[in-house]
Amino acid sequence: MEETTSEVVEEYLLEIYILNQAGEKVKANKLAAALNSKPSTVFATLQRMKRDDLVKINRSKEITLTTKGSGLADNIAYRHNLAEYFLCNSLKIPWSEVHMHAHKLEHAMTPLVVEKLAEFLGQPQFCPHGTPMPGQSLPDNTLTLDHATVDTYVEIVMISEDLEDSLEIMQILQEKLIMPGYKHLVANISTALQSISLKQNNMETVLPMHVAKKIYAINVEEIT
Ligand SMILES: [Zn+2]
Ligand SMILES: [Zn+2]
Question: How much is the pLDDT for 152?
């Protein structure tokens, strides 16, 4: 019989995958916060996932995906990104909101639907927030905005998947055009305030560093 993964386990796999990709160490309490669940529930689910060879938990209680787990997570991430692309580009749901809807849709897509949807959408290479689809990658010279230099121009290439969980931040980013493809001047960096300010035309946006380090960009010559 073919093994199927429950929706809950898929959520866990995707969340661990996202946190790992953001370079964060994943522990049960962080996962509980990210998934809005009780630590006891998370603990029980993790034990089952460990038994099913989906996750490894080391002595410092850090959780990583096994080869089997990361294969499944890749597939869920692909469904998630494809669903976002569809919602944003075909259904015209706001860029800032598609992530939460995609979280629901991603579990309901059979392999045939995934294949046909990718075909229908013209095999998109990135999600609307710039996350590369499998086989794609960000440009080599990509940097996170906390490493930007004052008086240079940057073009946004990706908003990290874990920022997408905050609708409020996403709405600000959309309003201020801090979205893939848009260019900004790095107007100021304040070590004292731990912030960076971006300028485009007459619009200036101050971002705290903890947000800036989750936004990826490349340096460009100027704003054209
Ligand atoms: Zn997303
Ligand atoms: Zn996305």
Answer: 96
The highest-level CATH class for domain 1-134 is: mainly alpha
Quote the CA–CA distance of 83 and 73 in Å, as a whole number. Answer: 15
Residues of the chain with CATH 2.30.30.90: 143-220
The answer on pLDDT for 134 being more than 90 is: no
Kindly give the distance from the C-alpha atom of residue 32 to the centroid of ligand 2, in angstroms, as a whole number: 21
Tell me the CA–centroid distance for residue 126 and ligand 2, in Å. 8
Note the CATH number of domain 143-220. 2.30.30.90
Amino acid identity for residue 116 in this structure: K
**In the predicted structure, residue 3 carries a pLDDT above the cut 60:** no
Q: How far apart are CA 115 and CA 82, in angstroms?
A: 10
pLDDT in tens, 20-29: 887 888 999 9
How close is the Cα of 209 to the center of ligand 1, in Å? 21
Cα(59) to ligand 2 centroid in Å equals 33
